[in-house]
Amino acid sequence: MNAFTLYTPETAEGDAKAVLTGVKAKYGFVPNLFGYMAEAPYTIDAYAYLTDLLDKTDLSAPQQQVALLAVSVYNQCDFCTVAHGAFAKMHKAKAQTITAITEGATIEDAKDRALVDLVKAIVDQRGWLKDEQLSAFYAAGFSKRNVYDLILIVTIKTLSNYANHLAKPEANPELVAML
Fold it and tell me: What residue stretches are annotated with the Carboxymuconolactone decarboxylase-like domain (predicted)?
C-alpha cells in the first residue's frame, strides 16, 4: 500500500508531535504538507530551516513567493501551487504575475518574468545554465547572489513538491481561503 499517514499534533508521537505542535503555533493550523512530512520529522526541520534562510536572501518577499510559486507550478505540485499562490497574494506580489504563472501566460512585469524564466531554467536544465540566460537575468537587475537565492528556492520546493507528489495532500481550507 502506498498511502501515507496524515499526522496531527494529536495523533503524532515523539519528535513529530513536538514539531507539529510548533507548526500549529506558528501558522494557526497544520498545513497538510507538514502533517505528511511528520512521518520523518527531520524532513520538516530541514524544510523549515531552509525556508527560514530565505530571510537572508536579497530577494523581496513577493519575489520569493513568485519564485516558489513558479517552481511549484513547473513541478506540477497542486498543494504548493495553492499555498504559494496564497502567500504571494498575502505578500503583495503582482496579481498579473500570479495569474500568469498559474495559467502559463506571459508575465508582463519584466523583472518578475526574468525571475520566473531563470527558475524554470534551473529546474529544467538541472542547474546547467547558459550564459545568455544568466545575462538576461542580470540585465533585469538581479545579481549573481540572486542566482544562488533561486537555487535555494528550487531546493526548498524540490523537497516539498516531491514529498507532495508521494502524499498527495489536499490544500487546507485555510490556504484556499487566502486565495
Answer: 49-113
